[in-house]
Write a structure and sequence with these properties.
This is Asparagine synthetase B. Strand 13 and strand 14 form a beta hairpin. Helix content is about 30%, strand content about 15%. It has two domains: about 110 residues, Alpha-Beta Plaits, CATH 3.30.70; about 300 residues, Class I glutamine amidotransferase (GATase) domain (Rossmann fold), CATH 3.40.50. It has about 425 residues and is of the alpha/beta class. The longest helix is centred in the first third of the chain and has 17 residues. It has 13 helices and 14 strands.
Length: about 425
């Protein structure tokens, strides 16, 4: 009788003792079947007010979530690999991470950041890599454009993305190849109409005002992530504030004499001492970009992520989380950055070791942060106008796209002061 009571007691108690308390989303190369959607699960948990932690350098930058049927079901629906952990198993992992001998750290993720994407109305999600991967990972975002920026609606968001944009008023420097193309003519017409509607005489003046609003957003504590030509054109627009650098085919009047000498590099976020490209038919803004100078064959085009101390340099460590340190290169209007033209207070997070170019950089301005990522689409080596969109179902473990999503979660983290 006593034995029977003990057996009955164990039947009820053992499930309680064995009950899982955590879910681990492993982010290593061999275990996770969909790295990109794992970020979406983590964002979804934050949005649902679940607690979450980012385990820096533990199995590729894994995520630790509370166990719940709701989260398990969401992982199964989205095809994200997960492991169920007991409280003691989770504590063992956290103890390992906290050891001074391990280059790892646990970062608490506090809230789902509100995301804005700067994009003209009518653009499709596949027109830039960030909207493509946000849509694929099921992370919500709000498209905004010049009207919203100029009426201070950036204050509603934590994170802003810029992609293939031109803040200098030169219409993307497409003049040489596409000035007779119907889409170019239409876009130029639309940009001029919008500038006039917003009270500006020139597109360059209107775009310059937008760039300064974005600058103020960052200085005030916002986070900006830019790719491709948005990186250097944004910086140039800030440095050329009040200087006419546009030729007549762009704004109807000549550029300012000797405008190069009037560029104020102290107003730029990331770059210094660059020389602007004067020829309107050249598909370049300046010598910041390495596209025409790099001469690297596609089969050798990779860049290496820098290694930082996870316990001391938490921010760059977060931004470099990946299941590999070697990332396949990809091109864009702005593919990469001339290392000598990157300001000394800007961190290089990824570099091509064949020529020393910077591919992925990060810095702080005021209370906020920015990250610049060269290239157009991490899984389309040489994207051209009119090319078919990338199908991310074919690249669910893309290291290049993971870097974008690191930046998405970065504003969610409880941050520590950077040491180096």
């Amino acid at each position: 009788m006593l034995f029977k009571r003990i057996v009955v007691l164990l039947v009820f108690v053992f499930p309680i003792l064995a009950k899982a308390n955590f879910i681990l989303l492993p982010m290593d190369e061999t275990t996770q079947q969909n790295h990109l959607k794992a970020y979406g699960i983590t964002y979804w948990c934050l949005d649902k007010k679940f607690k979450a932690s980012w385990l820096l350098n533990y199995r590729g930058g894994s995520f630790l979530l509370p166990d719940s049927p709701e989260i398990r079901k969401e992982c199964q629906i989205r095809g994200v690999s997960f492991e169920v952990l007991s409280d003691s198993q989770a504590q063992t992992i956290l103890d390992e991470i906290s050891s001074p001998s391990q280059n790892m750290e646990t970062v608490v993720l506090e809230k789902a950041p509100k995301i804005a994407v700067y994009t003209p109305k009518g653009k499709q999600p596949w027109d830039d890599a960030v909207t493509l991967v946000l849509t694929y990972a099921e992370i919500p975002f709000t498209p905004i454009y010049d009207e919203e920026v100029l009426t201070d609606q950036l204050l509603l968001y934590d994170w802003l993305h810029l992609h293939h944009e031109d803040f200098t008023g030169q219409y993307g420097k497409f003049y040489g190849a596409y000035r007779t193309a119907p889409w170019y003519i239409e876009q130029k017409k639309d940009a001029e109409a919008l500038a006039k509607k917003l009270g500006y005489n020139k597109v360059s003046e209107e775009k310059g005002a937008v760039a300064k609003k974005i600058r103020d957003f960052v200085i005030g504590g916002g986070f900006m992530f830019a790719m491709c030509s948005a990186t250097d054109s944004f910086d140039i627009a800030l440095a050329a504030d009040g200087v006419d650098i546009c030729e007549p085919m762009f704004d109807g009047d000549p550029s300012e004499p000797n405008y190069q000498s009037k560029i104020d590099y102290t107003k730029s976020f990331a770059f210094k001492n660059y020389t602007l490209e004067r020829k309107p038919e050249r598909y370049e803004f300046s010598d910041i970009d390495m596209t025409e100078k790099r001469k690297i064959p596609m089969e050798k085009d990779y860049f290496t992520l820098m290694e930082f101390s996870a316990k001391w340099d938490v921010i760059p460590s977060m931004l470099c989380q990946n299941h590999t340190q070697l990332v396949k290169g990809f091109m864009g209007q702005t593919t990469s950055f001339e290392r000598e033209l990157v300001k000394s207070n800007v961190l290089v997070l990824g570099e091509c070791q064949l020529n020393g170019e910077a591919r992925y950089i990060h810095g702080q301005v005021g209370k906020g942060f920015f990250t610049f990522y060269g290239g157009h689409d991490p899984e389309d080596y040489q994207h051209r106008v009119g090319d078919e969109p990338t199908v991310l179902d074919l690249h669910p473990n893309s290291p290049g796209y993971r870097l974008i999503l690191n930046n998405i979660l970065f504003p969610a983290a409880r941050k520590k002061k950077q040491k180096t």
